[in-house]
Every structure is written in structure tokens, then in C-alpha cells.
Design goal:
This protein has 9 helices and 17 strands. It has 354 residues and is α+β, with helices and mostly antiparallel strands. The chain has 2 domains: 3-65 and 174-352, 3-Layer(aba) Sandwich (Aminopeptidase); 67-158, Peptidase M42, domain 2 (Elongation Factor Tu (Ef-tu), domain 3), CATH 2.40.30.40. The two termini are 35 Å apart. Bound molecules: zinc ion.
């Protein structure tokens, strides 16, 4: 895997705080793009093959990760947190988190947990909701926290500990959802052979997916794709429940045939299946209960052909998630194989098959 993956998960960027991710994306899109496009909310894309008479294809990850913002600094110097993106409160207790100050430096903290000693009276409860959580940054009081540079509205991210599994095949990290997609966009733009590409092509990443698919709405308005591919991590159920459509780590990319916000277009489904089979790329069907940027793009203008090429990931929307390198290969290979075929004829064929 290229260095993009590790470097991107290590950067901080909850929704609306994507600056560091965007700067990274811009730096690495520029060498491979003919044009850089950034919309007014901050989504960023690099385009190639722009002189071609052909359809416009757009590939997008999203830059934001789940985390929190500083909501209040208490008189004791602890920080009340506003959760950003869907996070179960049960994953928060005792976690190491960093407050990102205005200059980009980090202040370490820990989410305070009540020790058993303080719970023995059976009247006291463990802290269990965002309203009760506090981040302890070691400040002595309110003024000390302010002097350290903490301000309301700053982002708070989970401390990362990027780790490769014992067999070398899996990687543990925060923010796979969806720095994986950001890195994949850079990877594809760098890897695709322009002479094999029958379309105009934009690759990049959206802002504010985790708070309601906001960036995709405006970036797709600007780029006007004929076909949109979201590349995003989806939660695997495999360690909890045995299911055929709940995602299994290492079993190939996910064909998201259903989610509540976007049902996969039937012509698109056929195109993805045929492409994967012709190239011996493993895939699995996936039913999701969440949405991706594809749902927002689908409803832009007079409607857009969309799909999500899903990356299986265990334990997303928590402090640490796990991906499998074989799935990375499958996602990368199927996107490259799809792009080579996407001329006007193919896009019309997909539409007519739907
Ligand atoms: Zn995501």
C-alpha cells in the first residue's frame, strides 16, 4: 500500500475541520492532475483527460472522521465534548483523545472513567452519555486550559496507534472511514493510465459526510458527473453475527446493493458484477443500514448513476477499526477495471440495463 493510507489516517479531521486533510490531498493531487477543483465548502478533486470528448466520471472518498468538538471548558479545566458523527457512547470511556489547537498542535487528554471504588455504594453510576463525559487534559482550572490554547469549537480526535496485525495482512487504525477512500482516490489518480481512459476523470474527497452527506451535494453540483463512484468503508458484522450480506473482512469489495438512501441501480449492479468476474476480483454483496455520498449525488440535477465500492472494515465509528490488505487490492482493482470501460456507449448501456 502506498504511503497515502498511513499518512492520512494519522491526520486529524472531524467534520468541518478537514483543513489538514485537504492540504494533504491538494499536495498529492497536484502532481497528477490537469486541474484542481475545490468547491465553497472545501471538497477537493483533481481532474485528468479533460480535453476528451467523453463522459465525466467522479471518484470520491470523504475527508471527515468521527470525533468530537470542544463544547465547554469547565471551572475544573476539563472539557465537555460535542460528539460529531455517529459514535456509540460505550466506546468513549477511558479513551485517549487529542484536542487540536488553532495552530495545529495537539493537547493530549483522556475521557475520565469512574473507578470501581467510587461505584461501590451502588448509588453512583459510571459516566455513560456524552452529556456526562469530560476530557481531562491535565489542566488545573478553566484559565489553565485557556492558557494552553483550548477554545470552544476546536476538534477532538481519537489518539491513533496505527498497527499491523501479527500476520501482516490487517491494519488497525482510527479513521479508516474514510481516509481509506481519500487515499484510494490519490492512489487511483496516480495509477490510472490516461491513454486507457475513455472518460474525463475527477478523483478526490468530500467534506462533511458524517454529518449528512453535505460535501457531496455541492461538489457534484460543481463537477456534474455522468457517473459517480463513492469509495467508503462499511462496517463488517462478521465477528458478531454470521450473515451473508453483513460484510466479512478479507472476502473482497462490497457491492452495496441496498441502503436506505440509495438502492443500487440494476444496470450499475450488472456492470460491477461483470467487471469483477471478468477480472477475477473477489466481491461480496452488502446490505447497509447507513448511507454514503452516493445517495446525495444520486439526487443531484436530473439524477446521476452512482455506486459505492465498499471497503470492509470492522469496528468503524469507534476509536479503532480494522481493514484487510486483500480487500484493498479488490477495491483498487475493480475501480481501475471499471474506469477503462466508461465511455458514452457503456454509460448508455448501464442506463438501459436498469
Ligand atoms: Zn464513511
Amino acid at each position: 500500500m502506498k504511503r497515502y493510507y498511513e499518512e492520512l489516517v494519522n491526520l486529524p479531521g472531524v467534520s468541518s475541520h478537514e483543513k489538514y486533510i485537504r492540504n494533504y490531498m491538494r499536495k498529492h493531487l497536484e502532481p497528477n492532475a490537469e486541474e484542481i477543483v475545490q468547491d465553497n465548502l472545501g471538497s477537493i478533486f483533481g481532474g485528468i483527460n479533460l480535453d476528451l470528448e467523453g463522459p465525466t466520471v467522479m471518484l470520491a472518498g470523504h475527508m471527515d472522521e468521527v470525533g468530537a468538538m470542544v463544547e465547554e471548558i469547565t471551572s475544573k479545566g476539563t472539557i465537555k465534548m460535542l460528539s460529531i458523527g455517529g459514535i456509540s457512547p460505550t466506546v468513549m470511556i477511558s479513551q485517549h483523545m487529542d484536542v487540536i489547537l488553532d495552530d495545529g498542535s495537539k493537547i493530549p487528554g483522556v475521557v475520565g472513567a469512574k473507578p470501581p471504588h467510587l461505584l461501590r455504594d451502588n448509588k453512583t453510576q459510571q459516566v455513560s452519555s456524552f452529556d456526562d463525559f469530560f476530557l481531562d487534559i491535565g489542566a488545573d482550572d478553566y484559565q489553565h486550559a485557556v492558557d494552553l490554547g483550548v477554545k470552544i469549537g476546536q476538534q477532538i480526535v481519537f489518539r491513533n496507534d496505527y498497527t499491523v496485525s501479527a500476520d501482516g495482512k490487517k491494519i488497525f487504525s482510527k479513521a479508516w472511514d474514510d481516509r481509506f477512500g481519500c487515499a484510494m482516490s490519490l492512489d487511483i489518480l496516480e495509477s490510472v493510465k490516461k491513454e486507457e481512459l475513455p472518460c474525463r476523470f475527477y478523483a478526490g474527497a468530500n467534506v462533511q459526510e458524517e454529518v449528512g452527506l453535505r460535501g457531496a451535494q455541492t461538489s457534484s453540483f460543481k463537477i456534474k458527473p455522468d457517473l459517480f463512484i463513492a469509495v467508503d468503508c462499511s462496517p463488517c458484522q462478521d465477528t458478531f453475527t454470521e450473515t451473508k450480506v453483513g460484510g466479512t473482512l478479507g472476502a473482497g469489495f462490497l457491492v452495496r446493493f441496498y441502503d436506505p438512501r440509495a438502492i443500487l441501480h440494476q444496470g450499475m449492479k450488472q456492470f460491477i458484477e461483470e467487471t469483477a468476474k471478468a477480472n477475477n476480483i473477489p466481491f461480496q454483496y452488502y446490505k447497509s443500514m447507513g448511507g454514503t455520498d452516493a445517495a446525495a449525488v444520486q439526487l443531484s440535477r436530473e439524477g446521476v448513476l452512482v455506486c459505492t465500492i465498499g471497503m470492509p472494515a470492522r469496528y468503524i465509528h469507534s476509536t479503532t477499526s480494522i481493514i484487510h490488505k486483500d480487500d484493498y487490492e479488490a477495491v483498487r482493482n475493480v475501480i481501475l477495471a471499471m474506469l477503462k470501460q466508461l465511455d458514452y456507449n457503456k454509460i448508455n448501456e448501464i442506463k438501459n440495463n436498469g
